[in-house]
Amino acid sequence: MDVVKRVQFSVLGTEEILQRSVVEVTKTDTYSGNEPVISGLFDPRMGTLEHNRNCSTCEQKNLFCPGHFGHIKLAMPVFHPMFFDMIRKLLKCICFRCSRPFASMRSSTVFRNEILRIKTIKNPKKRWDAFVLLCSNPKINKRCGDDCTEEQTDIESGCRAKQPTRYLKESPMKIIAEWKTAEETVNKEMSPSEILKIFQRITDEDIELMGFHVRWNKPEWMICTVLPVPPPAVRPSIIEDNGQRREDDLTHKLSDILKYNNQLQSKIDSGKGTEDQLRVLINLIQYHIATFMDNTIPGLPVAQQRNGRKLKSVADRLKKKEGRIRGNLNGKRVDQSARSVITPDPYISLDELGVPFRIAMNITFPEITNEYNIAELKALILNGPDEWPGAKYVRLIDDGITITLKYADRDKIANNLKYGDIVDRHLRDNDYILFNRQPSLHKMSMMCHKVKIMPYQTFRLPVLVTNGYNADRKIAL
Question: From 79, 161, 339, 391, which residue has the greatest number of CB atoms within 10 Å?
Answer without folding.
Answer: 391
